[in-house]
């Protein structure tokens, strides 16, 4: 039986013999030997690990010219000896690959890599390599001997003045700059790797982890997360290999500077786990809070270098150094205080769902700082795009306009497209039309969406024609331009039924005037969702059909008006339009100031408006065109004001406004319950602006008012209400009835209060808990009937990253949770019952129907400080 | 060249707590590898492994007086056996583990490179061990981690020594395949 044969062969092999293995057993035998070797290697002794225990380890046999004086220290992968080079009568340092380590494969490659790196770097602040060689089996290289001490030792002994600190730091930075210029990233800069000699000269050493940017070397792939926690950059801690670059060294230089100035590393130097948590979660303490003598600008510079996101740091060591020089010479530094921008950024990182616009704003503000240097068209566009994405359309428009002033013709189209889109979202019809008209002159084929129709009107009004079509030649008359627009408009489902009828009318007239094509039929003009081809009378009957959807009824009446108007019956048209207006207004008196609800808070989605206010405005215009003596119906509105809380960028509030005519038996909308009352479905959501107010345009009339926050309408999913974050509102001062007569009614303030964020933990980010005793507590959230607590176990990996691992959710009805009350198995699985384990927790609140209400503002990290016994 | 383990063992048995901690720290990674494989992929989480290690650290310390250094690897084998006994005592049920909070000595692995190399290798071995069948893993742990002879392992596994050798050979083949 082959197995027993194999096992005998193995026994012989394991006993040190060399069995002759028959061919048919060779593959298995080799595998087994490999398996055995791997086990042995994994279990093997580390002979040379403990330096002190083996102080008498024999030194390497170096060539005769070198005489070992003593051991200087042990670095990443080698031992460094002080050696006298007899022939030259000088002292040199020799680094020998750790004897006892495998002197082959990757290790050797790395060692030689370091030597090669160093050999490439010739800089007064980097030790030079003289020679690379091999002593017996042990590779070594010789280099300058620096008689001095590591910066870490110096710092442990004394505090440096900012001037002293900068004098040393700049030398180290110059060295790193030089390495970068050679394409080498150090990746493990720390005070221990900076040697200071008696003359006060600094030398950067230990390029053992350095990575060569100029080659796609795979050697260091798995070692990327290595480094020293206290000086690591977040991207290193997270193992984001592709992010590691010059900015990683900028961070380390920032950390070194920080320590040189304050005496402590930015995130402390205690247990690596704690350091890493702080590195990833907290901002370093401002330097001046530790020592008031540190100049403000230097603090600013240092904190910029320590930004969590590489792109927010100095892009290069050179930029970093230059700012330091600027500081020294008294010119203003380029770094900016981490003010609202970064705060907002932080918040946005934690709550991207609630604060998408914050992110964009922050990004824009940064982009704007760079504008001071001299923005090009592209910079302006980028900045504008960010403003635009952040909802600051008017600012975006300003930027686009500036860009337009500087742009070459080839850029104009894309700038104008942005202007159009932006104006459109601001509801600034005129600006949008202007942009559209201008855009046409550069690109007559441009697609303007719903603005095709108004632009066509403007083209006709302003008698615009193009004498020389850009890039193509030829001319386009006013009529041709307008026809193209109208055609485009009708080909897409834009506009209201009325607008489409009018556009079709206009198109037909223009075509007639040019002697082209007959009229289109009504069925072709109206989009599919509207109506069959009926007589105005039929349409008006349909408009009064009780129980039919309001929008359909309105459109029916409007279509009747449009047909009558087309037939020249202005009086009949006016009556039908008014009917349409009344139908719509009774159910939907809001004509402006709201948007389509929660959707617009999604990242990257454009804001959109409900169809109703658009239609209401259009009807008002249509009526006014037919009867200029009729009163302007849409001028008034309601202004809401939020008091009691300062709206910071991380707080978004939307007011859900319900208005209805109490005399109208059934406005034909759905119903919902707010605070125990059944009322017609929300009309729209008014975003509260940063001036703490929200304005909603309301058609004249007398209405019942009901306001709530956030969207809990059916379109919102479970995540819907996220924009109001732990805010409690008091609406009791609002009147029940409001009357609007052509003016804006200022409403009493809605009082808001920021619900205190979770309590029960140490206010420090890393709370420490005793699982037996600690109760996670938080303030009750109004209307909340249940809370979902999520507990994570966080794990610190070998490389030092913090990962959110297992999580457990518990649902409780009272605002507290005792860790010890979790089912034993769950708690155990989470592994949170033991001293030293780390975790995080957050809470969400739900109302009685299980709808999502709120969440705690951030996950709170904690460390289990007290050991415990399970069960 | 004298083995570090030996020096440390001697110092520790002469009463140096520091030496004991170092000794233990030197073996932490391999002890974890053992625990990890011993628990098998289903049972463990890295935290549990650490808990077991913590437990074993105390148990080992109490029993250290009985340990005799014979050769390189002896301490690890002894440690693995202690761990194994603790796990058997506890019926693999850590929820019932009565734990005393202990500060473990920090795993002592030489420089970052050594660590890297070692960690990588151990990770590879651990993964390969994970892929083995229960029988195969068990026999490898008994024989190579705990250092039992085929006869001793046979008693535990209720198999003949021949069958154990056989099983060992097959297990090594599988391990070699999966490395």
Describe what this molecule looks like in 3D:
The complex is a heterodimer of chains A (871) and B (179). By secondary structure, chain A is α+β, with helices and mostly antiparallel strands. Chain A has 26 helices and 30 strands. The longest helix of chain A has 20 residues, at 162-181. The two termini of chain A are 52 Å apart. Chain B has 179 residues and is an all-alpha fold. Chain B has a domain at 4-107: RNA polymerase sigma factor, region 2, helix turn helix motif (Rna Polymerase Sigma Factor, Chain: A). In chain B, 44% of the residues are buried. The chains are: A alpha+beta (871), B mainly alpha (179). Chains A and B meet through α1, α2, α3 and α26 of A and α1, α2, α3, α5 and α6 of B.
Summarize the helices and strands and which ones pair or pack.
The complex is a heterodimer of chains A (871) and B (179).
Chain A: H1 2-14, H2 26-43, E1 66-74, E2 78-85, E3 90-97, H3 105-120, E4 129-135, E5 138-144, E6 148-150, H4 151-157, H5 162-181, E7 184-185, E8 194-197, E9 202-204, E10 211-212, H6 234-237, H7 246-262, H8 272-281, H9 287-290, H10 296-305, H11 317-329, H12 340-350, H13 356-371, H14 377-389, H15 393-406, H16 409-426, H17 429-442, H18 452-462, H19 478-491, H20 497-514, H21 522-525, H22 536-543, H23 550-566, H24 570-587, E11 590-592, H25 611-626, E12 637-643, E13 654-660, E14 671-674, E15 677-680, E16 684-687, E17 693-698, E18 701-709, E19 727-730, E20 737-740, E21 744-746, E22 750-754, E23 766-769, E24 775-777, E25 786-796, E26 802-812, E27 816-818, H26 824-830, E28 838-846, E29 852-855, E30 860-864
Helix pairs in contact in A: 1-2, 5-7, 5-11, 7-10, 10-11, 12-13, 13-14, 14-15, 15-16, 16-17, 17-18, 18-19, 19-20, 20-23, 22-23, 23-24, 24-25
Chain B: H1 4-13, H2 17-43, H3 46-63, H4 74-89, H5 112-131, H6 134-145, H7 150-157, H8 161-178
Helix pairs in contact in B: 1-2, 2-3, 2-4, 2-5, 2-6, 3-4, 5-8, 6-8, 7-8
């Amino acid at each position: 039986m082959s197995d027993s044969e194999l096992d005998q062969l193995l026994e012989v092999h394991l006993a040190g013999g060399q069995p002759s293995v028959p061919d048919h057993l060779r593959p298995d035998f080799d595998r087994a030997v490999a398996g055995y070797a791997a086990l042995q290697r994994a279990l093997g002794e580390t002979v040379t690990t403990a330096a002190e225990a083996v102080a008498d380890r024999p030194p390497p046999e170096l060539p005769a010219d070198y005489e070992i004086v003593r051991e200087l220290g042990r670095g990443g992968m080698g031992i460094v000896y002080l050696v006298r080079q007899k022939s030259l009568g000088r002292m040199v340092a020799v680094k020998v690959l750790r004897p006892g380590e495998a002197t082959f494969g990757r290790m050797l490659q790395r060692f030689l890599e370091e030597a090669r790196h160093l050999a490439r770097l010739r800089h007064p602040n980097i030790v030079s390599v003289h020679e690379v060689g091999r002593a017996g089996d042990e590779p070594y290289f010789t280099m300058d001997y620096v008689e001095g001490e590591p910066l870490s030792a110096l710092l442990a002994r004394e505090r440096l003045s900012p001037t002293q600190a900068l004098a040393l730091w700049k030398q180290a930075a110059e060295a790193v700059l030089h390495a970068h210029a050679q394409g080498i990233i150090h990746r493990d800069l720390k005070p221990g790797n900076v040697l200071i000699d008696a003359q006060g000269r600094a030398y950067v050493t230990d390029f053992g982890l350095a990575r060569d940017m100029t080659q796609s070397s795979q050697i260091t792939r798995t070692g990327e997360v290595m480094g020293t926690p206290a000086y690591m950059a977040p991207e290193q801690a997270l193992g984001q290999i592709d992010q590691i670059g010059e900015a990683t060294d900028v961070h380390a230089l920032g950390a070194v500077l920080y320590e040189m100035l304050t005496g402590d590393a930015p995130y402390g130097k205690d247990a690596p786990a704690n350091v890493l948590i702080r590195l990833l979660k907290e901002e370093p303490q401002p330097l001046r809070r530790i020592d008031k003598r540190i100049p403000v600008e230097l603090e600013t510079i240092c904190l910029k270098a320590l930004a969590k996101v590489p792109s927010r740091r100095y892009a290069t060591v050179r930029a970093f150094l230059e700012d330091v020089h600027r500081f020294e010479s008294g010119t203003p530094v380029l770094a900016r205080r981490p003010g609202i921008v970064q705060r907002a950024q932080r918040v946005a990182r934690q709550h991207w769902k609630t604060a998408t616009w914050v992110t964009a704003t922050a990004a824009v503000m940064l982009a704007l700082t760079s504008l001071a240097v001299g923005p090009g068209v592209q910079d302006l566009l980028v900045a504008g795009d960010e403003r635009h994405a952040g909802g600051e359309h008017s600012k975006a428009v300003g930027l686009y306009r500036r860009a337009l002033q500087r742009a070459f013709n080839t850029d104009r189209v894309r700038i104008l497209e942005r202007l159009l889109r932006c104006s459109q979202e601001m509801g600034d019809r005129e600006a949008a039309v202007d942009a559209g008209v201008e855009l046409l002159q550069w690109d007559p084929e441009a697609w303007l969406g719903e603005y095709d129709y108004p632009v066509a009107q403007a083209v006709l009004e302003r008698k615009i024609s193009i004498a020389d079509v850009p890039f193509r030649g030829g001319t386009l008359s006013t009529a041709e331009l307008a026809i193209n627009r109208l055609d485009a408009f009708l080909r897409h489902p834009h506009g209201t039924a009325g607008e489409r009828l009018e556009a079709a009318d206009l198109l037909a007239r223009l075509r007639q005037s040019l002697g082209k094509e007959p009229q289109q039929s009504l069925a072709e003009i109206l989009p599919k969702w509207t109506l069959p081809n009926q007589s105005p009378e039929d349409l008006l009957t349909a408009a009064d059909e009780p129980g039919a959807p309001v929008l359909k009824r309105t459109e029916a009446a409007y279509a009747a008006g449009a047909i009558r108007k087309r037939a020249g019956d202005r009086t009949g048209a006016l009556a039908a339009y008014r009917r349409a207006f009344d139908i719509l207004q009774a159910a939907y008196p809001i004509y402006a100031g709201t948007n389509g609800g929660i959707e617009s808070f999604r990242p990257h989605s454009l804001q959109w408006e409900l169809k109703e206010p658009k239609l209401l405005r259009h009807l008002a215009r249509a009526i006014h065109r037919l009867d200029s003596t009729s009163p302007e119906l849409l001028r008034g509105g309601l202004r809401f004001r939020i008091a009691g809380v300062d709206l910071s960028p991380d707080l978004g509030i939307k007011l859900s406004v319900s208005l209805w005519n109490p005399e109208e038996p059934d406005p034909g909308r759905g119903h919902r319950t707010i605070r125990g009352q059944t009322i017609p479905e929300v009309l729209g959501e008014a975003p509260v602006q940063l001036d703490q107010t929200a304005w909603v345009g309301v058609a004249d009339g007398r209405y019942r008012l009901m306001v709530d926050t956030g969207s809990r309408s059916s379109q919102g999913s479970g995540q819907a209400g996220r924009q109001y974050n732990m805010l409690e509102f008091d609406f009791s001062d609002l009147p029940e009835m409001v009357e609007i007569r052509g003016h804006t009614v200022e409403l009493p303030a809605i009082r808001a209060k920021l619900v205190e964020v979770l309590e029960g933990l140490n206010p420090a980010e890393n709370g420490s808990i005793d699982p037996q005793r600690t109760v996670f507590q938080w303030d009750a959230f109004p209307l909340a009937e249940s809370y979902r607590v999520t507990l994570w176990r966080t794990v610190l990996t070998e490389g030092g990253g913090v990962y959110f691992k297992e999580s457990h959710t518990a649902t409780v009805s009272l605002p507290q949770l005792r860790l010890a009350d979790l089912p034993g198995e769950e708690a155990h699985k989470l592994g949170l019952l033991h001293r030293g384990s780390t975790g995080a927790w957050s809470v969400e609140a739900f109302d009685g129907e299980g709808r999502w209400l709120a969440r705690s503002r951030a996950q709170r990290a904690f460390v289990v400080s007290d050991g415990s016994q399970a069960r | 060249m004298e083995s570090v383990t030996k020096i440390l063992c001697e110092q520790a048995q002469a009463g140096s707590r520091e030496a004991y901690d170092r000794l233990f720290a030197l073996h932490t990674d391999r002890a974890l590898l053992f625990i990890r494989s011993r628990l098998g992929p289903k049972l463990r989480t890295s935290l549990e492994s650490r808990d077991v290690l913590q437990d074993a650290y105390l148990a080992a310390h109490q029993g250290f007086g009985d340990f005799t250094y014979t050769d390189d690897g002896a301490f690890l084998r002894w440690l693995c056996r202690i761990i194994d006994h603790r796990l058997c005592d506890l019926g693999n049920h850590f929820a019932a583990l009565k734990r005393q909070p202990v500060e473990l000595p920090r795993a002592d692995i030489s420089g970052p490179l050594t660590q890297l190399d070692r960690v990588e290798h151990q990770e590879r071995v651990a993964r390969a061990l994970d892929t083995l069948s229960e029988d195969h893993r068990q026999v490898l742990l008994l024989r190579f981690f705990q250092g039992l002879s085929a006869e001793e392992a046979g008693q535990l596994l209720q198999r003949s020594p021949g069958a154990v050798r056989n099983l060992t050979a097959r297990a090594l083949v599988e391990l070699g395949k999966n490395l």
